[in-house]
Amino acid sequence: MNMTYIKKQRKTPETLRSHRWFGAQDLRAFGHRSRTMQMELDREDFVGKPVIGIVNTWSEINPCHTHLRARAENVKRGVWQAGGFPVELPAITLAETIQKPTTMMYRNLLAMETEELLRSYPIDGVVLLGGCDKTTPALVMGATSMNLPSIFLPAGPMLTARWRGQTLGSGSDQWKFWDERRMGNITEEEHQEVEASIARSPGTCMTMGTASTMATICEALGVSLPGASSIPAPDSGHGRMAAQCGKRIVEMVWEDMKIRDILTPKAFQNAATTLMANGGSTNAVIHLVAMAGRAGVELSLDDFNEVSARTPVLANIRPVGNTYLMEDFHYAGGLPALLREIESLLYLDAINCNGKTMGENISNAKIWNDDVIRRRENPVKSDGGLVVLRGNLAPDGAVLKTGAMDQKFLEHTGRAVVFDSYDHMVEQIDRDDLDVDENSILVLRNAGPLGGPGMPEWGMMPIPRKLLTQGVRDMVRISDARMSGTSYGTCVLHVSPESWVGGPLALIQTGDTISLNANTKTLDVLLSDEQLAERRKNWKTPPDKFPRGYGKLVMTHIQQADKGCDFDFLMGTEPIADPEIH
Ligand code: FES
Ligand code: MG
């Protein structure tokens, strides 16, 4: 474990990174200054001041980030007030509900863009604006590799949605009402009303899906200011938080407090504990491994099993809880209140970007509604609700969210019904002659990091219609895909290695027997090594999908899920020199 954070020597105007651009007395600096003055700025507005990049993933194509345009202005106000020079740097947005084939394919592209924006421009510190699912890890990964003073401002959850007297949760209710419509329990008109009601304001999904999970994780890591992770996006408090980020980042530059000073092994342990206590998204397992990799911190899938075993789920938020949403979580005290309740499980000396320790930041936090944020003695679930499985079907691991599934499947053996691709599954799943019953195990392959590509969120396969009409609402499903953080059901995900690269999932046939045991954390197909080896003789590497372009880069360099799906050439902490100025 690392030492407690020790304050460094304060920066001076001459030791700022941007000094090489703006402070020097040479021909190049003349150009940098004169062309900055072209933007109607006086010399003293920017020379000798911390230059603060605001990496903004605002876009008209991203409904979760519509307010980030305005929030960038709030950040700028804070930066100016604190004596810095703010510059907004637009970056590619990853709009979870719109981008194809999946935003996950582009997470590493945004990470690269973030890192290189910061490296190639005279940036001294950065405020990262994002929140929609993969934007969060991408921004933090890029900033971590660049290692400047950094603060992440989460976009904040959207307001609670309402329809005919009931509340609607992003994602979770989307799946639920789709099944009701497939069953004929609601009309098309009613379904359209749900469609118009389920997302009523700017902001990220307001369940404890991937966006809220990653926002709370960033707060627990210390890269967001305390309390930032649950402020509803349209709340005036969110705009004030943005301005506070602007003020604080300027001071962080003078203090020379860099993001890797914050992202220590203790910080990642706190983040994993927070994931479990929130009953958070399975996607976070992949992202945390990737983020740790960028920070040079060891974090393996097995660490999650240890943390899960000792951490109760206290956030009673959908989909693991069945009533409340992020707005309720915020007014119940937000993450600081939850963290205080589990403080014995945390490293309280881990440092936050505000310069204080976790212990100092949560010392006055209170739970205002202990049905929303439960007490230790009355948890939603007594353990973390997420297990990593291994076995001959997943030699490098698979993930199961035990907190959001029918508990009768914790130990289950059944007959495999195999789909070769997502299209194959869609074509077959509602057929009356599909040879399936409620004890069958649905298997989907070719949906992993390369197979998808980008591991689309296909892991919550629909229940076959013939079983749905019999009242079946959950069954065991296994894939190398991910699932949305708002999803639920007995879905074994992230099977590694994936079928595309010849993992055992590629060799399974309909009719094989598969055994899942969440108690012993095992996932096996009941076939001998010899039988598997025999089948492997007939397996062929699938043909290339991309003749050129970014897709080809992904297919060549993406790592498997257990390694966080980072590109091999982006991993690690090997120092890269600042660009030469010529
Ligand atoms: Fe953007 Fe869920 S779709 S956070
Ligand atoms: Mg999602």
CATH class of the largest domain: Alpha Beta
* Largest sheet entry: 8 strands, mixed
- Tally of strands: 14
Category from helices, strands and their pairing: alpha/beta
Overall tally of structural domains: 3
Strand order of the largest sheet: 7-8-12-11-10-9-13-14
What binds here, in terms of ligands, is: FE2/S2 (inorganic) cluster, magnesium ion
Provide the low-confidence segments as ranges: none
Taken from the alpha-carbon principal axes, the silhouette is globular
Indicate the radius of gyration in whole angstroms: 24 Å
Through-space gap between termini: 42 Å
CATH architectural arrangement of the largest domain: 3-Layer(aba) Sandwich
How much beta, percentage-wise?
5-15%
Helix share of residues? 25-40%
Classify the fold: give the CATH topology of the largest domain: Rossmann fold
Total helical segments: 21
Arithmetic mean of pLDDT = 96
Name the CATH homologous superfamily of the largest domain: Response regulator
Protein name: Dihydroxy-acid dehydratase
Family: Belongs to the IlvD/Edd family.
Keywords: Iron, Iron-sulfur, Lyase, Metal-binding, Plasmid
InterPro entries: Dihydro-acid_dehy_C, DiOHA_6PGluconate_deHydtase_CS, ILV_EDD_C, ILV_EDD_N, IlvD/EDD_N, Sugar_Degrad_Dehydratases
What does this structure look like?
With 582 residues, this protein is of the alpha/beta class. It folds into three domains: 49-159 and 201-362, Rossmann fold (3-Layer(aba) Sandwich), CATH 3.40.50.2300; 162-197, no CATH class; 387-536, Glucose Oxidase, domain 1 (3-Layer(bba) Sandwich). The chain has helices at 19-22, 27-37, 43-46, 68-81, 104-120, 135-146, 172-183, 188-197, 210-221, 236-255, 259-262, 265-277, 283-295, 301-310, 326-331, 334-341, 358-362, 422-428, 465-468, 529-536, 549-557, and strands at 51-56, 85-90, 125-130, 150-154, 161-163, 166-168, 387-391, 394-400, 411-419, 441-444, 476-479, 491-493, 513-517, 522-525. The strands form three sheets. An eight-stranded mixed beta sheet has the order 7-8-12-11-10-9-13-14. α4 crosses α10 (236-255). Bound molecules: FE2/S2 (inorganic) cluster and magnesium ion. Residues 64, 96-97, 132-133, 170, 204-205, 209, 211 line the site of FE2/S2 (inorganic) cluster.
